[in-house]
Write a structure and sequence with these properties.
about 300 residues; mainly alpha; three-stranded mixed sheet; 8 helices; 3 strands; elongated
């Protein structure tokens, strides 16, 4: 499957998640205000954060496919990771911090909650569970059905959000039920705090992955070993002094090698060897869009 088709499927997955989260955010917000449930309000903030993040991911899918230009000669592939980083920040600030606020604020409450209001809240959470679960299933099916889909930060973010949303709904439901049964608000406050911890952990993981790729992460080990073996197998190469790789996007890798050629090769032969090596790397690893060779033509043996 080509990258354009893969992006189309990912875009549809993100749109499905966005539509589900917008509807769920409104339902949770109304239910939380009617019932006064801190756990339900935390989940509403969670859905709002997810909705904002999906807008970021849609921007990432569109902007990362722009062709290279004079200002960005290696293209815009890393935009995916930038917008994924913003999504991680959104999860942390909007979702995690608000959940902590709701949890601590609930511990200071002392009023009795209405069973009718909580019944509405539980129904809302039940619908949210089905919607989030459906979105998660779609994302997992795409992950399973596409080779290399696990490297797509947009798809990974949707899966992380939906998985967290499903678990968050279960935590909120458990907190609300235990609050109603025991009459102790600490159960629901604990659910809000647990949702906050969950969101912070997810945000940290997504943010760390985006950071690694933004600052220049090397290509996967298989590509590095393969290129090094190919270079070492060339009879004209005396030594591979250094090999550098860096991911520029989902399907774009920079490869730079410092190689010493065998003694006695003239300048014309050096050019032919360089062209052949670059062509071999491009054929073996199509994602290696940019290949640079720093060639040292060693002096003839016995020479000064």
């Amino acid at each position: 499957m080509n990258r354009q088709e893969s992006d189309r499927k990912t875009r549809m997955t993100v749109l499905v998640a966005l539509a589900a989260n917008l509807v769920i955010a409104v339902a949770k917000g109304v239910g939380g205000l009617l019932s006064g449930s801190p756990a339900l309000l935390s989940e509403a903030a969670h859905s709002v954060a997810d909705s904002v993040n999906e807008v970021f991911l849609l921007a990432a899918l569109r902007r990362s496919r722009r062709p290279p230009d004079a200002d960005h000669p290696f293209g815009y592939g890393k935009e995916r990771y930038f917008w994924s980083l913003l999504a991680a920040v959104g999860i942390f600030v909007v979702g995690g911090c608000f959940s902590f606020f709701q949890g601590f604020e609930a511990l200071g409450r002392n009023e009795q909650e209405s069973p009718e209001g909580y019944t509405v809240g539980l129904v809302v959470l039940g619908v949210a569970f089905l919607a989030e679960g459906g979105s998660l299933v779609r994302a997992l099916l795409q992950l399973r059905g596409e080779k290399g889909a696990a490297r797509d930060p947009a798809l990974r973010t949707v899966i992380a959000e939906d998985s967290t949303a499903v678990l968050g709904v279960l935590l909120a439901m458990a907190g609300m039920v235990l609050h109603l049964v025991t009459g102790d608000v600490v159960w629901e406050a604990s659910a809000s705090l647990a949702i906050g911890v969950l969101l912070v952990c997810v945000a940290f993981r997504l943010g760390r992955d985006a950071r690694d790729r933004l600052i220049g992460e090397s290509a996967e080990p298989g590509l590095r070993r393969g290129v090094e073996d190919l270079l070492a197998a060339q009879t004209e190469i005396d030594n591979v002094a250094a090999l550098f790789t860096m991911g520029l996007g989902l399907d774009s890798v920079l490869v730079a090698a410092r190689i010493d050629l065998a003694p006695g090769i003239d300048s014309e032969e050096v050019e032919r060897v360089a062209v052949r090596i670059k062509r071999s790397i491009a054929q073996g690893w199509p994602e290696a869009e940019h290949v640079f060779l720093d060639i040292t033509n060693a002096p003839p043996r016995g020479g000064v």
